[in-house]
Amino acid sequence: KLLKQGSISELINLSRRDNLELKQLAMESLLHLSTAVDEVSRRAIIESDNLLGAAIQCIATRTVNADLHRTVAGMFASLSECNECDDCLAKLVSGGIVPALCNLSRGQGSCPEIQANCVLSLANLCSNEQVQITIYRQGGLDCLLDSLIGGACNRHVAIGVRLLASNPNVCKAISTNESILTQFIFMAKHSFLDYQRSASSVIGSLTLNKDFRSFFARKDASLEEIIGLLSHTDCCVQRSATYATANVAESVALRPYLIRCNALHALGTMDIVNNDIRTTRNVSRALSCLSSGNAEAKRIMLQDSNIVKRLIRLSRSADSIAQRYGALSLCNMCHGQDSFTIGPGTKALISCLIFLSRYPDPEVMNLAAAAFAALALGCDDSRSKLVEEDVVKHLIRMLKFPDDQTTDSACLAINAIILTSKEALAKEEGIESVISLFKTSSNSDIVFGAVYALGTILDDNALSEVVVPFKNDIILSIAHKIESGSLDTKRAGGYLLSLLLSNGKNYEKIEMVGGISCILNLASMSDNECQEYGAFCLAELAKNDALKVDLVRKYEAVPSLVTIMSGECTANESKRYAAMALLSIAEDYETHLALGEAGAIGALLSMSAEGELQYRVSKTSARVAHSLR
């Protein structure tokens, strides 16, 4: 009834009088109205003209009246509870309520009751996202942080701080203020749990900003405080602390500081409260970041059994995100280990990787294959341990997996293992899988790995017989791969062809599938290694009496050999093989004319040869010259 009769305007006018007692009565009346009416009526009070101006004028007097300040603070708290209407809160903020609340809270007549009402008002106002950045700019956050007084307003301080810091624009503004980090660290150490929750949550949000993270490089003590919260018994605090730690660990420059503050040990030994899944994910993410590219971190992780056990548990987690980060950590930990310590945890680590290699998640399987490759490329002890734990059969199985990254890593691991233990591959019938991979794959890296593995196998006389049934298919596939493959594939293919020809066999098979054209292409390349393999193969082919004339007339190999002999940048070994090929071709009189026309005699004579090769050059040159008279 009073609202309908326009009593609000009258009370506002009375509050502007100079009489202090009249001001007090008018403000108390407005306070009673704001607390006794419903939301609609409270909204009408807020929208009244000059209400905030009159209230601010009452507290701006030189003479401090504690009762009047207490009444105004109570009215502000009551009006700020109009949460159903965002426009009302926005009107209060635009009307200047935030500076007034700050002045009330910090003024000479301030008391716990006034501070409590001011903090309550700020917390209510912070619930409106539209005005949060305005509240921050007008000093609302500083006022809340100055109100860490204990008592009933603690919860409201914590709520207001958390609401403000949840705004991205506020976080961006806060991130440029280094001193505010100290204040949040102080809140995190406070005995009041709500302060700890809010502070840790705010720090977690702020660590998303890369500029804010750089403060930790100058404040090791602050970083230690955050890491200390990892062992907190409250789930919310621990979750926020692990989130902040994981965010900081994403900065490569800050990882040494985390290691120096024993973050690895804390992450490895902390008890995850209630097995919270978000905490588990953040622990896994932090470990994966710290294990990436930092040799000191990898050394600590390998030596700390608690960390290894935690990573194994994480990689077996039912949560896919935590499992992927855990598998990535294991992969990073295995990478770059020149010396692998064989201990009680080694078998558990390899068993875990075997489990991951069978897991129906392509990314997890890919990480397991990469970890096996890293271990196989390490030292002899690690390779022997992989063979002992029967890892080879799992690598062979992964060769058939449709994902190229997994197949490439498995092929790389097999290549490293067979350098020291070729029998392990033959025992598991893996040679057939490597040959099949070589023939069917179109990925250049996988093809190179498969060709390289076959070359290693053929280099062993005992195992080369296993490949005999596949030789025709291998040679045919090599012919295609050399034409379309990468430079590494061409080099590996040339090495494989040289092994197939080095035993004095396979001449007819290579000619049948068009292998001689591939060999000539290799010999004509500018790459020294490919050229050397090509020249060697031609030298072997020229030993066959049935191919001497065909090499000259059908394949026109002599100009290529002469080019190799006369090249200024050609390696001496390639020149020697080319000379041997020309000398073998010259043994047939039908080739002498072609040799003379191509300038082979001049190329041979210009070569600086010694011993038996020099004698053969002289003798062959004379014979060819005689036949050309």
**Helix share bin:** over 70%
Largest sheet: none
| Shape assignment | elongated
The residue-averaged pLDDT reads: 82
Work out the helix count. 43
Task: Indicate the proportion of strand residues.
Answer: under 5%
Low-confidence stretches: none
Structural class: mainly alpha
Give the radius of gyration.
41 Å
| First-residue to last-residue Cα separation | 135 Å
Beta strand count: 0
Explain what you see.
With 629 residues, the chain is an all-alpha fold. It contains 43 helices and no strands. Helices cover 72% and strands 0% of the residues. Helix 31 packs parallel to helix 34. The radius of gyration is 41 Å and the shape is elongated. The N and C termini lie far apart (135 Å). The mean pLDDT is 82.
